Structure formats: structure tokens, C-alpha cells
């Protein structure tokens, strides 16, 4: 099992002084009666939520999701994400950054705009930023240049990084390595890589964010295998829906019977009633944490509590 403290000094205590024993006990008590979850990545600025965002947020609360980080993926998206935090104070938080797909839109003033957005207490992370060499919607050299600027910005403002990586592991490691002595904590969002890649990110001190991608992963060395082998320490695990994407199709034949049996009726009721391939919602998070716990062969309450405490430490949620 990887050293959960990592080797790069990316200590979440740089962001938050930690959680008191009393606070942990309060979280344990709430988890014991119902899930107390944090969705670290939901794209609630997406137009698919434009007509009923109030209901989406209310359903998330009913499902046990107490905090949601609204992902910023462009300058305009980051501004809108911050605006939403003011409409749902204490429930929604935001990130600010430029997704690798949109790296080609970077201009000279983007650095200062993102820095200004990040100065707001509701904005708790820099990103979504990183590298995507799978689709290459922006040229790879541009992606790397824009990503490095955003890592530099995170170091300057002292806020965590919300990272995206597809088929670009080596370059991601190389760029992050340039900042290893001063980089703030970071999470590799929606991880879909191999065990070797996961272990490398953990060695660097990163958190690993998992989504409903689990339902369709059948690779010999993918996320399911990583969980079954216990390679991700609980104190480095975070959960997210990536809504409206990454719908967890728990009815699919790819999910083993024992995993399906571990899903509670209550969690399934939110998923089946309100979520589809076309529009996933944060209320699907209970099903995701139940799947993760089942693959890890750990009590779901333990996984729920650990991921919530990790999110509070990393992002400094109130």
C-alpha cells in the first residue's frame, strides 16, 4: 500500500489546520444515521441544469450530499460557478480554472482573472486544469503551457489543484514535479488510469477522485482492480459525480452481482428516479460510495466518513 503522506510534502495541513476530535465525532454520529457526503466535482453550470437547479440541489441534500464543489472549466464557467455559490451558501463551493480542452482559449489576462476569482472564500480550488491527450481539443504543447501556468497560480494563491489527466500521465508527473517543493495539495479528479499510475500519484501526495466510471471499467488493471487490491488509502480517497457526466449504470451487466447487492434501496431510488445517461446528478453520489465500498470490501459508513473528512481537510469547507 502506498505511503498516504506521499513524498512531495503536499500536506493538506497547508490548507487547513485539520479537524478536531470533536468535529470528527460529530461527523461519525451523522454518518451513522445517514450518509454525510461531499461531491468534489459537479458541473452545475451546465445548461442541462438551467431550469431546475433548485430541485437538483434539494435532491442532493435529501440524498445526504452536504457540500458540492461546482467545477470551473473556463473563465466564464468559473465566474458562473462562483455566482452559484452565492445562491446556495454553505452548500455550493467552486473552483476556477481552464480545462485542457479549452487551453487554446487562454489569453494574457486569464491568469489575473482566475487569481481574482480564487481570492473569494467560496472558491476553494484551482482547476479543472491539466492535460488531455486523448481527445486533443487543444494542441498538446498549448495544454502543457496553460497547465503549468495554473499550477504556478495555485502555488501563488495557496489553494488546492483540481486536476484532469487522460493519456498524459508522464507529462502530468513531469510538470507537477517542477513544483514539488511548493505545490499545494491536489486531487486527480475522475481517475481512470492504471494501478502503477495511481501509485505514482499517491507517492506524489495527490488525492484520488473516483466517479461512477466504476460501472463500466472491466480492465485487468483499472479502477476496480485498484480498489480490490486496496491500493488507495482511505485518507487519500475522494468521491464525485462529475455530473451531468459519468452516470453510474448500475443495471448494466458489467457490474458483478455482489456489487449490485451492496447497493441500498434508498440510494438506488435517487439514482433511478432522477438520473440518466443524458443527465447525471449529485444525488447519485450515495450509489457511487456504496460501489466503492463494496469493491474495497469495507463498510460503506467508513468510506463515506473518510471521504468527507478528506474533502473538508483538502478544501477547507466550513
UniProtKB/TrEMBL annotation:
Pfam family for this entry, one: TatD_DNase
Binding, a divalent metal cation 1: 128, 242
Gene Ontology CC: one annotated term: cytosol
Keywords: Cytoplasm, Exonuclease, Hydrolase, Magnesium, Metal-binding, Nuclease
Domain of life from the UniProt record: Eukaryota
Annotated binding of a divalent metal cation 2, by residue: 164, 189
SUPFAM superfamilies in alphabetical order: Metallo-dependent hydrolases (SSF51556)
GO molecular function ontology, one term from the record: single-stranded DNA 3'-5' DNA exonuclease activity
Task performed by this protein: Deoxyribonuclease which catalyzes (in vitro) the decatenation of kinetoplast DNA, which are circular DNA catenated to each other, producing linear DNA molecules. Plays an important role in chromosomal segregation and cell cycle progression during eye development probably via its DNA decatenation activity.
Family from the record: Belongs to the metallo-dependent hydrolases superfamily. TatD-type hydrolase family.
UniProt protein name: Deoxyribonuclease TATDN1
Organism per entry: Daphnia similis
Amino acid at each position: 500500500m502506498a505511503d498516504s503522506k506521499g513524498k512531495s510534502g503536499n500536506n493538506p495541513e497547508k490548507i487547513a489546520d485539520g479537524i478536531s476530535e470533536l468535529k470528527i465525532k460529530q461527523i461519525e454520529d451523522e454518518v451513522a444515521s445517514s450518509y454525510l457526503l461531499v461531491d468534489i466535482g459537479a458541473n452545475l453550470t451546465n445548461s442541462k441544469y438551467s431550469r431546475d437547479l433548485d430541485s437538483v440541489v434539494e435532491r442532493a441534500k435529501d440524498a445526504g450530499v452536504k457540500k458540492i464543489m461546482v467545477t470551473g472549466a473556463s473563465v466564464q464557467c468559473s465566474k458562473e460557478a462562483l455566482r452559484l455559490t452565492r445562491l446556495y451558501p454553505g452548500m455550493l463551493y467552486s473552483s476556477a480554472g481552464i480545462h485542457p480542452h479549452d487551453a487554446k482559449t487562454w489569453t494574457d489576462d486569464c491568469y489575473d482573472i482566475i487569481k481574482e476569482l480564487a481570492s473569494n472564500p467560496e472558491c476553494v480550488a484551482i482547476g479543472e486544469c491539466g492535460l488531455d491527450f486523448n481527445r486533443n481539443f487543444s494542441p498538446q504543447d498549448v495544454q502543457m503551457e496553460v497547465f503549468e501556468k495554473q499550477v504556478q497560480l495555485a502555488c501563488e494563491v495557496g489553494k488546492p489543484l483540481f486536476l484532469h489527466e487522460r493519456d498524459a500521465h508522464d507529462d502530468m508527473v513531469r510538470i507537477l514535479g517542477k513544483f514539488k517543493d511548493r505545490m499545494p495539495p491536489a486531487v486527480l479528479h475522475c481517475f481512470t488510469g492504471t494501478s502503477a499510475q495511481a501509485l505514482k500519484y499517491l507517492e506524489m501526495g495527490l488525492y484520488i477522485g473516483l466517479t461512477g466510471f466504476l460501472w463500466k471499467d472491466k480492465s485487468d488493471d483499472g479502477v476496480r482492480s485498484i480498489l480490490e487490491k486496496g491500493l488507495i488509502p482511505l485518507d487519500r480517497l475522494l468521491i464525485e459525480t462529475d455530473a451531468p457526466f459519468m452516470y453510474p449504470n448500475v443495471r448494466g451487466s458489467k457490474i458483478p452481482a455482489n456489487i449490485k447487492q451492496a447497493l441500498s434501496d434508498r440510494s438506488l431510488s435517487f439514482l433511478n428516479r432522477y438520473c440518466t445517461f443524458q443527465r447525471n446528478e449529485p444525488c447519485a453520489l450515495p450509489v457511487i460510495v456504496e460501489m466503492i465500498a463494496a469493491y474495497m470490501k469495507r463498510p460503506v459508513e467508513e468510506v463515506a466518513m473518510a471521504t468527507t473528512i478528506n474533502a473538508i481537510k483538502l478544501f477547507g469547507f466550513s
